[in-house]
Amino acid sequence: MTEIYTDSDTERAQLSNKTVAVLGYGSQGHAHAQNLDDSGIDVVVGLRPGSRSREHAQDDGLRVATPSEAAAEADIVVMLIPDTVQPSVYETIASELDPGDTLQFAHGFNIHYGQIEPPEDVDVTMVAPKGPGHLVRRTYERGEGTPGLFAVYQDATGEASSEALAYAGAIGCTRAGVIETTFREETETDLFGEQAVLCGGVTDLIKAGYETLVDAGYSSEMAYFECLNELKLIVDLLYEGGHTEMWNSVSDTAEYGGLTRGEDVVDREAMEAILDGVQSGEFAREWIAENQASRPAYRQHRRAEQNHEIEEVGDRLRELFAWSEQAEPAPADD
Ligand code: NDP
Ligand code: MG
Ligand code: MG
């Protein structure tokens, strides 16, 4: 079993004389910067001139500078801007990294696929909460924490690992628990998960189920409820109590039918091909090229998804559930 690190494993004093530059003030950035600040760590937020985030950071009482100014005074530079812009912003701050400084990430893509190549005399680490920024901030304010990961890619000082744990402590993650991973494992499992299961797999499963029912003459409203709306109830059960609790909560008919038929819809070879594309770097090369070409395929896929019939049916039916949004307001920052 992987070891789980908690507060008692961290040396918080390790950050007491250090300045942290948080580059970006979006989902992760606002949460890391405010939690560090509340933990008594010296923080400066690095934002480009004219940044729309500047006012938010200043309103939250934080010091703001440009990314290169922030990196110049910092001992730890944390890359919390979108992954696709990190390589170009890195170019503007690279000369500010002094020997013994730390370059820290919350996702391994740019290091693992060689889009950022830091000098050998800096520590390169990752601290990644397993949750969106608003949760990282909200749990911290309640005295709790979001579980997270840490990893060391390059340890120039011999202290990379304990410093990353101290940082995970300062943003609240070790209150819940932190596990050690590698840049490779985090990057490849993250990409595989979002492509095959979480984002790609699930939406395609929903669309295929919906289309199968509608093409067979069933009403689009019934198909929507069956294939999309009820998914939340099932996922909540899985999240709370695993497969056993979910199977216990549905009818025996659902359990028998699901257990005997479910595997027919999953193509394991296709999943392995997706993992191959992640491991070989083929997906990364495709996505980097797509960005360099201003995302033509991305825009096309996005448009097709937005124009799918299930979206129009869903917009209409979700109004029947307006009460559910009042019960738990969706945070605007993610
Ligand atoms: P966001 O998209 O929320 O970052 C937005 C911030 O980046 C804004 O402050 C924006 O400032 C700034 N920014 C955008 N473009 C540029 C640019 N060209 N130059 C300078 N600043 C720019 O990022 P996330 O928080 O979602 O992701 C940050 C990192 O955390 C990524 O590596 C991601 O993979 C990782 N991560 C994200 C999680 C999440 O839940 N979102 C979970 C775990 C890890 P401006 O106002 O100037 O546009
Ligand atoms: Mg420095
Ligand atoms: Mg992901």
From TrEMBL:
Q: Where is the KARI N-terminal Rossmann domain?
A: 1-181
Question: Which processes are annotated in GO (biological process)?
Answer: isoleucine biosynthetic process; L-valine biosynthetic process
Q: How is the cofactor bound?
A: Binds 2 magnesium ions per subunit.
Entry-linked Pfam families:
KARI_C, KARI_N
Positions binding Mg(2+) 2 in this chain are 190, 226, 230
Report whether Magnesium shows up as a keyword of the record. yes
UniProt name for this protein:
Ketol-acid reductoisomerase (NADP(+))
Upper taxonomic classification of the species?
A: Archaea, Methanobacteriati, Methanobacteriota, Stenosarchaea group, Halobacteria
So where does Mg(2+) 1 get bound? 190, 194
User: Where do the annotations place NADP(+) binding?
Assistant: 25-28, 48, 51, 53, 133
Query: Family, per the entry?
Result: Belongs to the ketol-acid reductoisomerase family.
**This protein's pathway:** Amino-acid biosynthesis; L-valine biosynthesis; L-valine from pyruvate: step 2/4; Amino-acid biosynthesis; L-isoleucine biosynthesis; L-isoleucine from 2-oxobutanoate: step 2/4
Asked whether the keyword Transcription regulation is assigned, the reply is no
Identify the catalytic residues: 107
Q: Which cofactor does it need?
A: Mg(2+)
Q: What are the UniProt keywords, alphabetically?
A: Amino-acid biosynthesis, Branched-chain amino acid biosynthesis, Magnesium, Metal-binding, NADP, Oxidoreductase
Gene3D superfamilies in the record:
6.10.240.10, NAD(P)-binding Rossmann-like Domain
Q: Name one GO molecular function term.
A: ketol-acid reductoisomerase activity
Q: Which residues form the KARI C-terminal knotted domain?
A: 182-324
Name the catalysed reactions: (2R)-2,3-dihydroxy-3-methylbutanoate + NAD(+) = (2S)-2-acetolactate + NADH + H(+); (2R)-2,3-dihydroxy-3-methylbutanoate + NADP(+) = (2S)-2-acetolactate + NADPH + H(+); (2R,3R)-2,3-dihydroxy-3-methylpentanoate + NADP(+) = (S)-2-ethyl-2-hydroxy-3-oxobutanoate + NADPH + H(+)
In this chain, substrate is annotated as bound at 251
What EC number(s) are associated with this protein in UniProt?
A: 1.1.1.86
Main EC class the enzyme belongs to: oxidoreductase
